[in-house]
């Protein structure tokens, strides 16, 4: 065999999850942090078939805000696939995404103290 | 990608690292509702020769399963726990996982102490605050934290504690110790 071929069984099982993304493994959602917060904007999705059932599901989950990791776990799809789907929804203005607290500035002292007290109270 | 303004909840990320089978999943499950997370990862050069891909030359991604848990401190403040993949061939995922992490718990088993060396090296190099929690397995000899500290050649400020990750109370102490350490590191840096 010369070079990689991406046909039939040779392509391996990865094809199935990415079939949901039209085969794309790249989108504007590529660099989404696992704990970036996703929230539906409430804009009604287009009635045609532009967005699939998985994306409708994501909109549903993100209605009150959910992290990328939460969404991937809920829809039971690999993270890479979910990132592409989220990127598409974002491009269509159906969701907003907020990055988590960045490395710098670090989370404030007040937040960390709150976490410590919260953990103790569990 | 454009981001929305920051009136959204605050999410913090804590990593749980350590060798394979040291109790990472148990720790996450003891204190939070544990959920599965799958990723399709591109096989890096590092995994060539480790993953046997003979006969499937076209396959350049692999599925990695991770655990994660969520602890809601209050509405709008959530702590996420991520168990890092134990096998060294999944190292390429660590950069993504540790980006923006508040800190890390390195779980250690005194019978296989060397298993946690790579995690410690990694967090030391990245400057991520971490603690070492020695999981006291049934049947393993108990070692004092100070002995473990010497064996691992840890800096004096790195907290070392004994724990039993099956117990929720113990898991709580581990996480509180980590966040206190992260707070101390933060305030020291601000001085």
UniProtKB/TrEMBL annotation, chain A:
Pfam families the UniProt entry points to: DUF742 (PF05331)
Top-level taxonomic group: Bacteria
Listed PANTHER family: DUF742 DOMAIN-CONTAINING PROTEIN (PTHR36221)
Name of the featured protein: DUF742 domain-containing protein
Source species of the chain: Planotetraspora phitsanulokensis
From TrEMBL, chain B:
Signal peptide bounds: none
Pfam families with a match to the protein in the record: ATP_bind_1
GO MF assignments: ATP binding; GTP binding; hydrolase activity
Keywords associated with the record: ATP-binding, GTP-binding, Hydrolase, Nucleotide-binding
Family affiliation: Belongs to the GPN-loop GTPase family.
Family annotation (PANTHER family): ATP/GTP-BINDING PROTEIN-RELATED, GLIDING MOTILITY PROTEIN MGLA
UniProt-recorded name of the protein: ATP-binding protein
Taxonomic lineage of the native organism: Bacteria, Bacillati, Actinomycetota, Actinomycetes, Streptosporangiales
């Amino acid at each position: 065999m010369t070079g990689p071929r991406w046909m039939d069984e040779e392509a391996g099982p990865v094809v199935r999850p990415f079939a949901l993304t039209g085969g794309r493994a790249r989108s504007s959602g590529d660099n989404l942090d696992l704990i970036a917060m996703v929230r539906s904007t409430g804009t009604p999705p287009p009635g045609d078939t532009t967005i699939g059932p998985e994306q409708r599901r994501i909109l549903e989950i993100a209605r009150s805000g959910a992290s990328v990791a939460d969404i991937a776990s809920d829809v039971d799809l690999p993270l890479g696939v979910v990132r592409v789907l989220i990127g598409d929804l974002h491009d269509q203005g159906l969701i907003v995404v907020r990055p988590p607290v960045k490395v710098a500035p670090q989370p404030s002292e007040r937040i960390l103290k709150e976490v410590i007290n919260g953990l103790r109270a569990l | 990608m454009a981001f929305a303004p920051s009136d959204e909840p605050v999410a913090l990320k804590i990593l749980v690292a350590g060798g394979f089978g040291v109790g990472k999943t148990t720790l996450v499950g003891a204190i939070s509702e544990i959920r599965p997370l799958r990723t399709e990862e591109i096989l890096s050069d590092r995994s060539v020769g480790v993953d046997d891909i003979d006969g499937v030359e076209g396959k350049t991604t692999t599925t990695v399963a991770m655990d994660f848990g969520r602890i809601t401190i209050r509405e709008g403040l959530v702590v996420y726990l991520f168990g890092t993949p134990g096998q060294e061939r999944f190292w390429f995922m660590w950069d993504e996982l540790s980006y923006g992490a508040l800190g890390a718990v390195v779980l250690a088993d005194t019978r296989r102490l060397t298993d946690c060396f790579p995690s410690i090296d990694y967090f030391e190099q990245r400057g991520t605050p971490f603690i070492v929690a020695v999981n006291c397995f049934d049947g393993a000899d108990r070692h004092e934290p100070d002995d473990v500290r010497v064996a691992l050649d840890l800096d004096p400020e790195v907290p070392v504690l004994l724990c039993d990750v099956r117990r929720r109370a113990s898991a709580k102490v581990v996480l509180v110790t980590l966040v206190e350490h992260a707070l101390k590191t933060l305030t020291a840096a601000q001085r």
